[in-house]
Amino acid sequence: MSIRTRAAARYTAVAILLHWLIGLAIIFMLGLGLVMTQAPLPLMTKFGYYQLHKSIGITILLLVLVRIAWRLGHRPPPLPPMPALEARAAHGTHWLLYGFMLFMPLTGWALVSAAKRTIPTVLYGTIPWPHLPILSTLADKGPAEAATKALHFWGAWALIALVLLHIAAALRHHLVKHDLTLWRILPLIPRPKGSS
Question: Taking the model in full, what pTM does it have?
């Protein structure tokens, strides 16, 4: 594949749709997580936010599984020409993002399952979602709840850092390097005129 073709290669429509659905949902979830754990909210409001957080978290988990299956069957376009170290950093960051996109919903699900207060999860107020069997039946849930809470909490901060790094890298390519990296994943945006 020529350098020109590599620079112009675009993600599939399905990959673009999944990227933005998951990305926007994650950003919303990180904000919602901060609000529901830090803001002084009425009890029922907080309960509603937690239920919404759980619902969107499971939705993200399912979308990420679809995205991984799609990626296994559809190779992403090659990176545009860049230094080898930058390419390795890009690949590494993408794999870390995939890992955290799985880690966060799974630790959240584990936290809900290990919680001493057994509160059912009902996705979007409609679909009952089971707790994880081993964690939900522990005789002493305290240690498991504390461990999963810490993993989910620190994982959220790590994910915030990764998302900011990902956004900064995309903006650097667009605003500083003036290449087509960001365009390759933008929905419904025609290729810029005069771009190579």
Answer: 0.87
